[in-house]
Specification:
- With 386 residues, the chain is of the alpha+beta class.
- The chain folds into 3 domains: 101 residues; 63 residues, no CATH class; 145 residues, Nucleotidyltransferase, domain 5.
- It contains 9 helices and 18 strands.
- The strands form 4 sheets. Strands 1, 4, 5, 6, 7, 8, 9 and 10 form an 8-stranded antiparallel beta sheet that branches. A 5-stranded mixed beta sheet has the order 13-12-11-14-15.
- A hairpin with a 4-residue loop joins strand 12 and strand 13.
- Helix 1 crosses helix 2 and helix 5 crosses helix 8.
- It is globular.
- The two termini are 24 Å apart.
Length: 386
């Protein structure tokens, strides 16, 4: 099967190339803002063909862009407008950073950016000695070749890998190249080659509880809860100030929190995959619609529930599992925390949520309630394969 992943490579330009890359990104962003303003002021239809007729020559002459970059500018702006039209009704709070002109929302391109088309704007080449790969990129002054770090990125250069339109990102004074790479992943026959089944219960007290039929592993969520509570307290204090500096810090802090939880999910999903052999079937509960359930909790507890990043963890586990010859499935989680894994007796009173204890009213089997859910998911996975 085919899978598309994003490779993030750190670019290492010298001082001259550094400035040239930055100038190119700035010109690209300025051209995007120019095209967006032109679309609104001239009421140009959101059609690549119509916009090309109106702004292509101006993009090339005023911003000194190569032909392919001018085309990419048009596609970037059109995609931004269409994204706004699609999501404005669903997420109106996300578009406060855009300004209006005559009732029309105009996307802003203040941050330097650059979209690069494979083999036209960028490519990966060897140096003269054929000992090091270099990043070849088109700029305002023609092509340059710069080295890059590709630690643990051998899969990017696998035979048959296909590269998509990349993004050149400037962050914390450094350049990064984000490349979507489509690779072929050997698909396991269903279900003959599965050697191991692991049930995984996700939650807030324990991020994951994994059971493979022999042992149980717990990933504590206390650090995540404490960190989120810390960020929440600081945000509340900053929101009372109503100053531009406070708002800037809130945005910066939110990004820092997101990066941190993203790293937590990466590490946790990687550990789950590496701790189990190739040919493992991971069984997760299907949490579709869980957001509406978490929003019904007490107001003081609501932030912890709605900020639970269960979906992000699931997506990371899926692509890591596929890369290691494993699979992830979702099954109905109904009564998994109330059903005894030994005798099968199901009763709400079996589970004590306050003490996080499961005690079967029929056979007396006692254990952690989250562990029971993982055990039941593991057994459901075994039945699913039969």
């Amino acid at each position: 099967m085919l899978q598309t992943l994003t490779a993030k490579l750190k670019i290492l330009p010298d001082d001259q190339d550094f400035q040239l890359l930055h100038d190119t990104m700035r010109a690209y962003a300025d051209a995007c803002s120019f095209v967006a303003q032109k679309i609104v002021s001239d009421q140009i239809p959101l059609s690549n063909k119509e916009i090309h007729k109106s702004v292509y020559r101006d993009c090339r002459s005023e911003f000194d862009l190569p032909s392919q970059m001018a085309e990419s500018v048009i596609r970037t702006v059109v995609a931004s407008f269409k994204s706004i039209q699609t999501n404005l009704e669903r997420y109106p709070h996300k578009f406060k950073k855009y300004k209006r002109k005559g009732g029309e929302i105009i996307p802003q391109f203040k941050v330097p950016q650059l979209s690069l088309v494979w083999n036209r704007d960028y490519s990966i080449v060897w140096n003269k000695d054929h000992t090091e790969r270099l990043f070849s990129v088109n700029t305002l002054k023609g092509r340059i070749k710069v080295p890059f770090r590709s630690d643990a990125m051998e899969w990017v250069f696998a035979e048959g890998a296909r590269f998509g339109t990349a993004k050149l990102v400037f962050k914390h004074g450094k350049f990064f190249l984000h490349i979507p790479v489509t690779v072929e992943i050997d698909d396991l026959p269903w279900p003959s080659q599965f050697k191991n089944v692991v049930g995984i219960d996700r939650g807030i007290r324990f991020l994951t509880v994994a059971y493979d039929g022999k042992q149980t592993s717990f990933a504590s969520g206390n650090t995540v809860k404490q960190k989120r509570a810390h960020y929440k307290k600081i945000r509340q204090e900053l929101q009372k100030r109503h100053t531009p500096a406070a708002r800037r810090r809130i945005r910066s802090m939110g990004q820092r929190e997101n990066r941190w939880i993203n790293d937590v999910n990466h590490c946790l999903s990687k550990a789950l995959v590496l701790d189990n052999p190739e040919g493992t079937l991971f069984v997760l509960e299907d949490l579709t619609g869980i957001r509406s359930a978490t929003e019904r909790v007490r107001t003081e507890d609501r932030y912890v529930s709605v900020s639970w990043s269960y979906y992000d963890l699931e997506e990371k586990l899926k692509y890591k599992a596929f890369r290691h010859g494993c699979k992830v499935i979702n099954l109905d989680p109904a009564y998994t925390s109330q059903k005894c894994p030994l005798c099968g007796h199901t009763e709400k009173a079996n589970r004590n949520k306050q003490k996080h204890v499961f005690c079967c009213k029929r056979c007396g089997y006692t254990t952690n309630d989250d562990r029971v859910a993982a055990m039941n998911l593991q057994r459901m996975g075994i039945k699913y394969l039969l």
